[in-house]
């Protein structure tokens, strides 16, 4: 969620490389590409993603007229990262693949190792945004191994070394790996005056580690260090800091501070979304221009123009059809979920729940009818109480609450609910959070990790997995569709 600043540094790194590759006669296309990339950095720092995107595509256009593989790779990689920020990962992968092809054409050396480091970081970022945290951490570790092979490390190499350590630690936090704090502190321990802003990201990640251990005041104190540099912060990082502060104060029952920082988060998050929508429009326009330029630069014969035009229309049509089909399918699943929610049920990924087992002839547990009915009545009250959102709930603790034993409770749930205890609890939790997201607009602005905690899941990743298994779509897709309903 907060790697946009690193994209800016990716571009800055490309500029330094570019200066080294310029020939004495200042090759026009290389120079023009670097100048446009430099402007993209400036607009990026001012949170003008739209203009930054336009300039990147122009920079790529000039770079592709050269034989500088590193320059072409960097421009494609920068566009890929821009698409990651806009949650257009399929597009990001396309440009990242282009970048990697160019990197592979470079001779062995420190430049190639650094660019491979950046590519691994970017692949990891895509997996991270798709909530594949284990896979993301594997790529981050590959980036660390690659950067450690640089023979003559300069300021950039040291900085990207810190990035690799930070990203490993941050991904470890989401997969509940105890080494998260170790890697974050390693990144913090490396002293460098180059792009010191990375320290703010590290402190923010450390605050989440502290909050995960319920050291809320320590988390707040760490975030306050970051807020001292509020005017220098990337807007997404500032949004994340506001959000984390609101949740830490909420955990300490400080309603005033919670409301103060939560309002700041919602206001800034709205601004970020508006900027992203403008950038998406700009990216689409830039890609269309790429195709038009390809046609105009092609052979003037009608045959070539027809072939290129047909290919463009076909590819574009396929992409649009695929996207519309996927969105339509996701919308249908969303509507089915809402329909089931309105009747106090939730569907599985196949849009149905397995029927309850009415008779279990071979059941080893024989429960008296009066006891069975008593458990059923208590389960009904339990469901209405929303106590299933307690993350420490187990079948043993629930049996104790209902004044029965685990064997009886498990048997009744299996017989009358048609599922085991874990599925029974998880489906109620998912139904609960879906209702919250659908009926309360503020929940559409909350992070997935908060939603997971709110409905009783111990980790972001387990929540995302269970949510998809039960509903058939990811939490982010559900939030997107719920937001459409609110705005329509």
From TrEMBL:
Name by which UniProt lists this protein: Transcriptional regulator, AraC family
Q: What is the lineage of its organism?
A: Bacteria, Pseudomonadati, Bacteroidota, Flavobacteriia, Flavobacteriales
Pfam (any one): HTH_18
Keyword Transmembrane, does the record have it? yes
GO MF annotations for this entry?
Answer: DNA-binding transcription factor activity; sequence-specific DNA binding
Q: Which chain regions cross the lipid bilayer?
A: 305-325
UniProt organism field? Epilithonimonas hungarica
Q: Which SMART domains match?
A: HTH_ARAC, TPR
What SUPFAM superfamilies does the annotation carry?
Homeodomain-like, TPR-like
The record, for InterPro entries, names: Homeodomain-like_sf, HTH_AraC, TPR-like_helical_dom_sf, TPR_rpt
- Print the keywords alphabetically: DNA-binding, Membrane, Signal, Transcription, Transcription regulation, Transmembrane, Transmembrane helix
Q: Which superkingdom heads the taxonomic lineage of this protein's source?
A: Bacteria
Signal sequence span per UniProt? 1-18
Residue ranges of domain HTH araC/xylS-type in the record: 377-481
């Amino acid at each position: 969620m907060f790697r946009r600043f690193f994209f800016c540094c990716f571009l800055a790194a490309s500029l330094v490389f570019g200066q080294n590759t310029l020939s004495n006669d200042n090759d026009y296309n290389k120079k023009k590409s670097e100048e446009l990339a430099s402007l993209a950095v400036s607009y990026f720092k001012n949170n003008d993603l739209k203009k930054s995107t336009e300039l990147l595509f122009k920079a790529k256009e000039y770079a592709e007229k050269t034989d500088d593989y590193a320059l072409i790779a960097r421009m494609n990689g920068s566009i890929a990262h821009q698409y990651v920020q806009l949650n257009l990962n399929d597009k990001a992968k396309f440009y990242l693949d282009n970048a990697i092809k160019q990197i592979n054409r470079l001779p062995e050396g420190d430049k190639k190792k650094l660019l491979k480091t950046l590519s691994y970081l970017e692949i990891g970022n895509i997996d991270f945004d798709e909530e594949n945290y284990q896979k993301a951490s594997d790529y981050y570790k590959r980036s660390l191994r690659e950067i450690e092979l640089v023979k003559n490390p300069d300021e950039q190499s040291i900085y990207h070394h810190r990035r690799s350590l930070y990203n490993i630690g941050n991904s470890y936090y989401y997969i509940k790996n105890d080494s998260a704090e170790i890697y974050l502190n390693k990144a913090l321990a490396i002293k460098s005056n180059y792009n010191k802003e990375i320290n703010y990201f590290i402190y923010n990640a450390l605050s989440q580690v502290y909050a995960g251990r319920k050291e809320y005041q320590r988390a707040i104190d760490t975030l306050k260090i970051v807020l001292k540099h509020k005017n220098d912060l990337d807007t997404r990082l500032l949004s994340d800091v506001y959000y984390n502060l609101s949740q830490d104060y909420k955990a300490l029952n400080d309603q005033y501070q919670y409301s103060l920082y939560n309002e700041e988060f919602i206001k800034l998050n709205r601004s970020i979304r508006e900027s992203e929508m403008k950038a998406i429009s700009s990216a689409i326009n830039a890609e269309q221009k790429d195709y038009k330029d390809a046609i105009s630069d092609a052979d003037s014969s009608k045959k070539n123009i027809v072939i290129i035009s047909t290919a463009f229309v076909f590819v574009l049509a396929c992409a649009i059809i695929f996207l519309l089909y996927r969105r339509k399918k996701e919308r249908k699943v969303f509507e089915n979920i809402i329909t089931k929610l309105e009747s106090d049920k939730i569907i599985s990924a196949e849009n149905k729940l397995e029927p309850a087992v009415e008779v279990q002839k071979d059941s080893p547990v024989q429960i008296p009818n009066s006891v069975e009915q008593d458990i059923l009545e208590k389960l009904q009250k339990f469901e209405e109480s929303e106590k299933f959102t307690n993350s420490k709930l187990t079948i043993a603790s629930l049996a104790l609450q209902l004044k029965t034993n685990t064997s009886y409770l498990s048997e009744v749930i299996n017989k009358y609910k048609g599922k085991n205890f874990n599925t029974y609890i998880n489906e109620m939790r998912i139904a609960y959070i879906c209702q919250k997201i659908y009926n309360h607009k503020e929940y559409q602005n909350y992070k997935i990790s908060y939603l997971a905690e709110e409905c009783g899941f111990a980790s972001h990743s387990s929540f995302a997995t269970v949510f998809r298994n039960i509903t058939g779509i990811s939490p982010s897709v559900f939030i997107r569709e719920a937001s459409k309903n609110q705005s329509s």
